[in-house]
Design brief:
heterodimer, A: 118 residues, globular, B: 219 residues, alpha/beta, Nitrile Hydratase, Chain A
Chain lengths: 118, 219
């Protein structure tokens, strides 16, 4: 199969059967924001705002570079934002303003004491 | 490069990547907070729902799956119901399914060994096992489990004899799998609680075999 053909037939996350390195038996305790992001995903699914299938498609749509460089929950939250924009539930400007507002709540120079945790 | 302001004698040194990691996390953490708060302001979700779901996530651990497996080993009728409908049998034991998934329980026998994976992302029987370990979500496991499961198993220290068939089941958004490991020999007199202590997360993913002495409490 040519390189362009395989770009079409294999989306970036469709990796079953590809060659890969040894299993690295890594794990980590979720950061509080990661757990919160997971809970947000579940609640969005309960309300049928974003279901699991849409979430997966949303991550696929980020493209190979973002999928490769962002961590697991970073991909999720960016995918959620994109899906919510597409559905007209949020606008990019609205999110940008809210992010500035959240950022402004954080004490200067301290990045590990977020003010937005539920 | 190291920062030295922590310790008087340099014993509390931390490498720099840790710092840049937390700065990078900051941006996405802010995005998560912002998205969540906007949805709450629009009354599409409730703040209490998020808090409750965090508690639900915290309450799900492989100990639940171990209880299911131990019951199946001890009670043949339950085992039959579990294999017929994984979800309803788990619900019998008070394990609620907070998502829309169905659960198929795959029984290991002397002829078949089962392994579960999600090649596309990270689907996993979360109501009974909690959240998946990172290695389950990373490329090497997802890519290779379906094409060379025996090599993957060997990397976990699990060697399956050639005459035993290895079956790999690829999870989806709607259908999740749980492996019912084989009951170790020599456990005929064990109570259900003692049996459950032999059942680890990895045995229910299928990358390990249940055995006396390798369980969660090393009975």
């Amino acid at each position: 199969m040519s390189e362009t053909e395989s770009l079409v037939t294999r989306l970036p996350n469709d990796i079953g059967g590809l060659p890969a390195g040894p299993i690295q038996r890594v794990d980590h305790e979720l950061a509080p924001w990661e757990k919160c992001c997971h809970a947000l995903a579940d609640v969005l699914d309960f309300h049928k705002i974003i279901n699991t299938e849409e979430k997966r498609c949303g991550v696929e749509a980020l493209g190979a570079e973002m999928i490769g460089k962002l961590t697991y929950y970073e991909r999720w939250i960016v995918a959620f934002a994109n899906i919510l924009f597409r559905k007209g539930i949020l606008t990019p400007g609205e999110l940008a303003r809210k992010m500035d507002e959240v950022q402004a709540r954080w004490p200067a120079g301290v990045n590990d004491e977020p003010a937005g945790r539920p | 490069m190291r920062r030295r302001q922590h310790g008087h004698d340099g014993t509390h040194e931390h490498a720099h990547p840790e710092i840049s990691e937390s700065e990078r996390l900051g941006y996405f953490e802010i995005m998560e907070t912002a998205v969540r708060e906007l949805l709450i302001e629009k009354r599409l979700i409730g703040a209490d729902e998020i808090r409750r779901q965090i508690e639900v996530l915290d309450s799900r651990t492989p100990a639940l799956g171990a209880k299911v497996v131990a019951r199946a080993w001890a009670d043949p009728d339950f085992r039959a119901r579990l294999l017929a409908n994984g979800r309803s049998a788990c619900e019998e034991l008070g394990i609620s399914f907070y998502d829309d998934t169905s659960l198929i329980v795959l029984e290991n026998t002397e002829k078949v060994h089962n392994l579960i994976v999600c090649t596309l992302c990270s689907c996993y029987p979360r109501p009974v096992l909690g959240l998946p370990p990172d290695w389950y979500k990373l490329k090497p496991y997802r890519a290779r489990a379906v094409s060379e499961p025996r090599s993957v198993l060997a990397e976990f220290g699990t060697v399956i004899p050639d005459e035993v068939e290895v079956r790999v089941s690829d999870s989806t958004a709607m259908v999740r799998y749980l492996v019912l490991p084989r009951r170790p020999e020599g456990t005929e007199d064990y109570s259900e609680q003692q049996l459950a202590a032999l059942v680890t997360r990895d045995t229910m993913i299928g990358v390990a075999l249940a055995a006396i002495g390798t369980g969660r409490t090393g009975l």
